[in-house]
Structures are given as C-alpha cells and as structure tokens.
Amino acid sequence: MTNQIQPVRGMNDVLTDQIAVWQFVEQTAADLLTSYGYEEMRVPVVEHTQLFKRAIGEFTDVVEKEMYTFTDLGGDSLTLRPEATAGMVRAAISNGLLRGARLKVWCVGPMFRHEKPQKGRYRQFHQVDVEAIGFPGPDVDIELIALTARLWRRLGVARVKLQINSLGTAESRRQYRELLQAYFRGHLAVLDADSQRRLDGNPLRILDSKNPEMQAVIAGAPLLTEHLDAESAAHFVALRAGLDALSIPYTINPRLVRGLDYYSRTVFEWTTDALGSQDAVCSGGRYDGLINQLGGDATPAIGFAMGVERVVELVRLAGAAPAGRPPDVYVIAQGDAATRAALVAAEQLRSALPQRSVHVNLGGGNFKAQFRRADKSGAAFALIIGDDEIARGVAAWKPLRGDGAQLDMSLAELPAQVRAALTN
Ligand code: HAM
C-alpha cells in the first residue's frame, strides 16, 4: 500500500503486549517516589525555545542539533522538550513555588530529541524525571542515589552499575576549563573536527569523545577531580562516605561530564552491559546555578532522569515483570434477547464486584467461536446465556481452567452466586 501513512522515524508505538511491563515500571517508580516523599507534577511538553537554550546550554549537542523547534501560529519559537529539568524548574519559578521552600517533585512523560535512531535511542522517548529543589546536599545526593538503587531492586534489574563524579562549582570549572583548553591547544593536530569546534565553547565535552584516535590525548588531560574547589571536594568526600555507609557500590569516573551544561558538583549515571551501546539507563546530578540562571532566587538543586524504554527492556530481559491480569469472567451470549441479558448481567457483576474483571463477547459469533475467544482471553470462567437459559431464568457458569463442573446460576441472584463461585 503506497499511500499508507508511516510513523515518524524514531517514534514508537507501545503496543498492548508491552503495556504490562511499562505499567510495572511506571507504577513501581511512582510508588517508590511517593514513599520517599516526592510528589508528582505535570508540566507542558512544549516550552519557549529560549528556556532550553538558557538551561541546557548553546554549545550542547541537544541544543545545537537535536531540538524539535518550530514557530507557532502566533510567531513564537517553541520547542518540544528534549528533557524535563528545564520545564520543571521553569514551573517552580513561574508558580512562585520556590520562595524559601523546598520541593521534591517528579514527572513522567515523552521527551523529544532529533538523534540518529538506533536500538535504545529514539526521537520520542520517555523519562521518569525526579527533582529535589532547595537542598544543598550532600544528604539529598546520597538519598537520591539510594532511591535509584532501591528502584533497580524493586524492578528486579541487576545488571546496572553506578558511576559518580564531581564537576565542582562554576568558578572551579572555569579555571579547569582554561587548563583543559591550554592542554588541548597543545594537541590540536590530534583533535577531530567536532572537538576542535568544542574547544572554545565547551572543551569538557571533548573528554566525552568516543573517537578511538583521541583516547590517548584524552587520557593525558588534566582531571577535574584534581582541580576542585575546597567545598566541592568536601561535598564529594561526604557523598562517597554516604554511599559507602549505605553499601552502594560505585566507581568514580573522572570523565563523566554529562551532555547538559547546567550541572555542578555531583553527577552520576547508572549504566548497563545488557543493552549494547545505549548503555545509560538513569543519569543526573546537581544543578546549583540553574535556577538563578533562569531568573529565580539562587537555589541549590539535584535530580535525575531514568530512560523508561531502556529500563523496560532491562525488566523484560530479566523476566521480572508480572504478567497482565486476565479477566475473571467472560460472558457469552447468542441472540438479541440473550445479548441484552448478557450486557445487563455483566453490568450487575461490575457493580457488585468492582475488583473483578468481566469481559463480554461483543460482535456476536456462534458459540464455538465465542468459546475460542473466551479461552484466548485467559478468563477463569465463562458465563453463558442463550435462548434456553433465558427461558429458564438462568445463566450457565463454566470453569475454563481445571476440571470444575458446569452449573446453572439464577439470573435473579447472579452477583451473589458469582461472588461465591469466585471466592471458592
Ligand atoms: P540525560 O542524561 O540527557 O539527562 O537523559 C536521562 C536518561 O534518559 C538517559 O540516561 C537515558 O536513559 C534516557 N535517554 C536520553 N536520551 C534518550 C534517547 N534518545 N532515547 C532513549 N532514551 C534516552 C537528562 O535528561 C536530565 N534532565 C536528567 C536530570 C534531571 N538531571 C537533573 N535532573
């Protein structure tokens, strides 16, 4: 079919057979966050382009080449959010939530980045995003990481490892940046075009390069962790002591610089060896300067985001998701009167037994076809209503699993009889 409309590249449908895992991941995260005192907040998927430029940084890959930016009918430049932190912080400022207050908030939803799609990397993807605003840390840094470690345990995901680093303050980073620029200028011939371009704007990103020909020069570069200001160094020591006290294993990765410019001090990332090259499943860090930079009072903050698609895949690989629940009762009927009676009976059951799931065969079909559907649904019982049953004022109750016997139930007392049968 040539004129069929295609999906947008890199944007996926989540079909019904995947929903049980998605709901398990999202519900487990929601329950855990609630239990740690985080509250859900919902913010728009579209913001002024300027917000992302100012928050994420002009020289980042995300802003330079990955944003879905458009001019709306009113002439405003808007962007589909590539991440949630900027919007969550914007919402906190716009709604006056920050004045001296502390916020522990989270959101879940789609993000958009025009990246090259591949396994685990999509143009529309989902994040569970968590932000703790108004806390200088390191207590909150430690607790947030403990929360993520607990999330993996609750999800039954084992193949993840934690990396941490400290980026220092904006001031110590500025000094380090100069050191790094001087170092890389001394090795200009080895730098690829991308890195040469980054040298002025964002030399720290050169450390992130995967280019094998640059690994030697990167390995020789000065380390940020060795040029931290005293307070950031103390913060990092306390973070590590906290993780040790909680027995959370980690490695220090001095090359972990993150792709967004707003970070300061603590940064962390959970990676996996189970998903191929797109190995980051959850990343975040402290962004003490961002709120002030976006026009709010200077307020320290930290957060992280988990990539839902990647975690869903890990849960699926681990076989850790509970299966979807089949219906308790599948109602089968033939003929107009019997179909009406079936619809009435099903509504009565739903009122009387709201925790139970009742499916009605819709769209007719002979008894054989309807039984096939009942069986395929996984239902434990079928309730059968035909002309003969109507004439006798009954419905037939038939166990579809095991070898229980079929019996008649009075239509007049159906809810009570079904309740009794289901609790047997
Ligand atoms: P990020 O590292 O850009 O951080 O993204 C967080 C997570 O989202 C990644 O670890 C990954 O699991 C997932 N992810 C990112 N891009 C894609 C993609 N194209 N396809 C599938 N999954 C993807 C942030 O977004 C920060 N806002 C996190 C944060 C919150 N920092 C402080 N607060």
Main sheet: strand order: 1-5-6-11-10-9-7-8
* Tally of distinct domains: 2
Structural class of the secondary structure composition? alpha+beta
Flag low-confidence runs: none
State the main characteristics.
single chain; 2 domains; five-stranded mixed sheet; binds histidyl-adenosine monophosphate; alpha+beta; BirA Bifunctional Protein, domain 2; eight-stranded mixed sheet; Rossmann fold
Tell me about this structure:
Helices cover 39% and strands 21% of the residues. The protein folds into two domains: 19-168 and 228-318, Bira Bifunctional Protein, Domain 2 (BirA Bifunctional Protein, domain 2); 329-423, Rossmann fold (3-Layer(aba) Sandwich), CATH 3.40.50. With 424 residues, the chain is of the alpha+beta class. The protein has helices at residues 16-35, 49-56, 61-65, 85-94, 139-155, 170-185, 193-201, 215-219, 230-245, 290-293, 308-318, 336-352, 367-377, 387-392, 414-423; strands at 39-40, 46-48, 68-71, 77-80, 103-112, 124-133, 160-166, 251-252, 264-272, 280-286, 301-307, 329-333, 358-360, 381-385, 394-399, 407-410. It is elongated, with a radius of gyration of 28 Å. The strands form three sheets. The protein has an eight-stranded mixed beta sheet with strand order 1-5-6-11-10-9-7-8, with helices on both faces. A five-stranded mixed beta sheet has the order 13-12-14-15-16, sandwiched between helices. The model has no long low-confidence stretch (mean pLDDT 94). It starts with 15 loop residues before the first helix and ends with a helix. Strand 9 and strand 10 (280-286) form a beta hairpin. The chain has 15 helices and 16 strands. Bound molecules: histidyl-adenosine monophosphate. Histidyl-adenosine monophosphate binds at residues 83-85, 113, 115, 121-122, 125, 127, 129, 131, 259-260, 280-285, 287, 303-305, 307, 309-310. Histidyl-adenosine monophosphate (HAM) binds at residues 83-85, 113, 115, 121-122, 125, 127, 129, 131, 259-260, 280-285, 287, 303-305, 307, 309-310.
